[in-house]
Amino acid sequence: MTRHIRHAAFFCALLMIALLVNAARIQLFKARTYDDNIANRRTTIARYGQPRGDILVDGRPVTGSQDTGEHLRYERTYTNGPMYAPVTGFASQMYGTTLLEATEDGVLAGTDPLLSPFPVWSGAARDRHPGGDVATTLRGAAQKAAFEGLEGRKGAVAAVEPSTGRILALVSAPSYDPSALSGNGSSVPRSWSTLNRDRDKPMLNRAVRKTYPPGSTFKVVTAAAALDAGVIEDVDKPTRSPDPYTLPGTRTRLTNASEGCENAALRKAFEWSCNTVFAKLGVEVGAERMAATAQAFGFNRADLRIPYSVARSTFDREVDRAQLALSSIGQFNTRATPLQMAMVAAAVANGGQVRTPYLVERTTRAGGGTVSTAGSSPVRQAMRPSTAARMKELMVDVVREGTGTGAWIPGATVGGKTGTAQHGLGNSGTPYAWFVSWAQGDHDAEPKVAVAVVVEDADPDRGEISGGGDAAPIARSVMEAVLKSPAPRAP
Amino acid sequence: MTKAGTTLVAADTPAPTARLPRRRGIELALIVVAVLLSVYGYCAVGIAKDGTVPPGAAGYGAGLGVLASVAHLAVRLRAPCADPVLLPIGVLLNGLGLVLIYRLDLETPGDRAAPAQLVWSTLGVALFIVVVLLLRDHRVLQRYSYVCVVAALVLLTLPIFFPAVNGARIWIRVAGFSIQPGEFAKVLLAVFFAAYLAANRNALAYTGRRVFGVERLQLPTGRVLGPLVAIWLLSVGVLVLERDLGTSLLFFGLFVVLLYVATGRTGWIALGLLLAAVGAVAVGQLEPHVHVRVEDWRQPFASIEAGEGPNQLSQSLFAFAAGGVLGTGLGLGDSILIGFAAKSDFILATAGEELGLAGLSAIFLLYGLLVERGYRAGLALRDPFGRLLAVGLASILALQVFVIAGGVTGLIPLTGMAMPFLAQGGSSVVTNWAIVALLIRLSHRSRSRLGIPEDPEDSRDSRNSRGPRDPKDPKDPENEESTV
């Protein structure tokens, strides 16, 4: 019997060895595969197990983290959520992240190896650190002015600092509160489907993700191209422009909203936004050179990131002369995001140089140590400095005595351009009202802000619209906010 | 060699001074270590979850300490020669189980299982003390073997009259308490098997036909096949009527092990494996409940690929994987994702995640040590009933640990069973204390019978255990029987 007891004991020992070997198989060799299984929620739990880093405006957080005590512990909160939604995006436990919450997720969620004092080791070990903060370039006052200006309307505002490319305001209306999507309760899917069904598309970031026909605001580009190309040498010399202008090769007659455009000089034509003059100018510059200038301003670029992607603004170079004429007054296939038009105004204000716009000034560790800073953004010459100086004059005239008087700010030099863009089938849609401008305080060495405003549901009475009526006051309040608010401390 | 061997040498020498040391001091020291480890785990959970030592730490430590001390005193009083390792392992596993359940309770505020488990543990220790104090000679149990089997059958059939819970009819509800009678039946059946086989092993061993003229594969005749078939039918009956694959596997495995130990006939093993295979295949095909378990075992992540999310087994595997070598630390894992039965059948996953491969191996080794000590007592005992009982009780633990630990780690198809001492479940913890109490009694008997001439079987066996088998070999059970 003893021998058989030993056999049975041996059998039990085999069972235990099998358990030990199998445990080692699971916990050592299969561990990484199991950890990475998409159905394994541990990564998600770890992600929400610590407060998420914050997004800062003027050094103050516009986001927060709320300890829910639930399994996915921390939920994102937003102060002034709708106002900053086009910048922050949302960080949802159910629907992922967008915009800055998405592009800066590594820092905010604490997975970026650079958050560690030993980045190489940390990257290999896949550690998680306390979430870092993301300081934006926004000016809270400008953002507020833009958001309040668009309240109850549809449209967007983009404001940049011409000399650096810092984005000072980025607003889209109507907006939404991203905190409605933060958690994982039953209200979140409801909010999600409500927001997605909404015909006004509140989650669409109109400032960077929607392109509009820029209309007359594109005349800034056309004028710059004409000056750079030498088609116009004296802005005060009358042009040979018929009114109405028959588009080349067609019988379509282009007219103007205002009188006195026939043979108008560039200054007057710009001031009164003469379609006929600029259509003909565009044709005289030629498609190649028009497209080259537009691209120098940033059109036709699909790779712009601020750091999230910006929709491509377009200027069609495969056009006949009639199409070129329309393209040159911001119609046909010419489309631009509000941010792109702000860059156009900024180029004029900045001596012809376009600074690539950006939103993130720097990222920091939870303790405050800097992880990365924006550095100086790439620069591109959109027009000659002399052309830029003339364009500044033309834009100042528009605000002083032309269509853009609504943007005038006492104690500052303001240049602007209005636009009314027709759209829809047979131009039946409510026209978009545009205003692009820049402003320089009397005590400033250089222009401090360039803005583009688009209002989708402008006053439908076409006689009254102009970007001047609907959009210019919004642009003015944004510019005023920038000029009055103190510049942020150097990082 | 082994301690048993030492015993033999000591027994051969006539000097009565060669008494085995009683080692009660070692037991006490190990109990102190076990209680301290449990309290440390309890504090570690609190510190990980709230940053502070949980307020009940002192009370918990005192409670566990008092229970263990009283049990220790009982052993000192009535089983002073018992193996000093058995009781501390029981205390440590039970303490660790309470820590793990308390830890999981923190994730389920509406469902606290630790207080009830503490009450059941107290009952278990009380039963332990009763058994150690009152059962002066284990051979008394032999007289009640048929009472035991009837009681076991009654306990096994009771749950059929109660509603199924989560697919298995293994619970009865009395006054708000859920009791799993099958747990108690394990011990009763072990007693019956041991007594039945001790009485009938000669008939079982020496009747039968040879197959292919090979004596080793001698098969039993139809007359003695009866009990085996009866037990097999009982196992299948339990399985089909109560949908409890684990318990039926345990009963059958226990019977086959004891049958082999009692008779030494490999024919029984072959027949047992054959019957088990037939039963398993048939049940696997016919019972959807079991069929699903087998499919889950073969493809643990099938439900994920089907877009239905992870099932319990894949969650359990995720938990073990998340533990890695050293574990996340007590209180810092996410094994609660397993959901239902995280505190009972899947408690080992929490240990695996939070204590890592290191802690899991330590737990396996603790069970292994417990089983080894049971077998050691069996080896050192002289009477066949005591030997079979010790082997049977130790095998219950071994098989149960293998069936459930293998199930939750994906080694074998998952069957619902309680991890001895660790898992939530009152009936289980009480039963396991009863098993440890019986092992204490058996080991006391095995180590205290000094000065008595040794069973000749052992000494001869150790000399020629690998030698060719001769039907007239004096170590055969018949000869052994005559020496008693």
Short description:
The complex is a heterodimer of chains A (491) and B (484). Chain A has 491 residues and is an alpha+beta fold. Chain A is built from 19 helices and 18 strands.
Determine the structural class of chain A based on helices, strands and strand pairing. Answer: alpha+beta
Question: How does the overall form of chain A come out from the CA principal axes?
Answer: elongated
Specify the oligomeric state: heterodimer
CATH level-1 class of the domain at 209-484 in chain A: Alpha Beta
**Could you name the ranges of chain B where pLDDT drops below 50 across 5 or more consecutive residues?**
1-17, 451-484
- Helix content, binned percent of chain A: 25-40%
Describe the global form of chain B: globular
CATH topology name of the domain at 209-484 in chain A: Beta-lactamase
Strand line-up across the major sheet of chain B:
1-2
Q: What percent of residues of chain B are in strands?
A: under 5%
Mean pLDDT rating of chain B: 81
Weakly predicted, low-confidence segments of chain A: none
Keywords (chain A): Signal
Pfam family, one (chain A): Transpeptidase
Signal peptide (chain A): 1-23
Domain Penicillin-binding protein transpeptidase (chain A): 155-480
